[in-house]
Amino acid sequence: MVECVEALTVVLAVGSVRGWRSALIGCAAAIAVLLLIIATVGTALTHIPLSIIQLVVGTLLLLFGLRWLRKAILRSAGLIPIHDEQVAFAKKAEAMRHLGSSHAAWDKIAFAAAFNITMLEGTEVVFIVIAIGAGHTGMLLPASLGAVAALLVIVALGLVLHRPLARIPENTIKFTVGVLLSSFGTFWVGEGMNLAWPGADWSVLALIGAYLTLALTMIPLCRNQSQIITSSLRNPE
Amino acid sequence: MKWILKILREIFGIFVDDGSFALAVLVWLAVVYWTTPHLSLPPAVTVIIFFSGLALILAESALRYSRRRQPRR
Predict the structure, then answer these.
(1) Model's pTM, two decimal places?
(2) Which of A75, A145, A217, B63 has CA 20 to 30 A from A22's CA?
């Protein structure tokens, strides 16, 4: 959902400055390419042994999830700025204005800008869908439907509000997703390595609890660490 | 060719933004993958060691970053 929000912000900025036709066509073209990737890769994965998929996709999911969780911890500790959709919208709209106005029916810049951001943010969504879908048989369709549902909710909100969705608690969502992806990634890599998880699939719940506890503990520790360094720089004695 | 490199760079960036953090995770996975079959540890102990390594890598990376940065709020 957060990826859809970030893409929506840019598409709204592009559409409102340069016109909606090319921006929406660019967005739709990127969604079509992404759906094609899901269908192709999803079908190809059915021919590979599950343990190899779990090891490879689990490793990628773990790298992706831990990266998100690390950034969410640092954002919550105030060490990385929280993404501001209003600022992102204003910056993108300004950049589009600087490129000059287009009166042609077909605006290449609007198409390219909308296509690029939808592909960029959509690739992360596609990866999550494929990774979740690859871990167990029959999971690809529910994972795809979840992503489509998130997209429809964000598009509907965008159509109704016609402005960036600044009130969506992005970091809280990213924090939660980071915990979930890290937990599933750890579990699948373990399965791929033939580690015996106590309680089988129920171990995922224990992993979610453990990663959540770790992340919540890390936030004040990171904040304190940074403040100690800052005060020691101000008072070298 | 440039656009292919750009796409590859974007895909790489999905998984890696701190190279040493990603490398540490991969090394730990390799260590667990190659050593656990040779150790006769109980399954519960093996998975706890596996998770603890990942937790330590995450904690160390976040703390290392926070030592280099000042608070923004």
Answers:
(1) 0.74
(2) A145
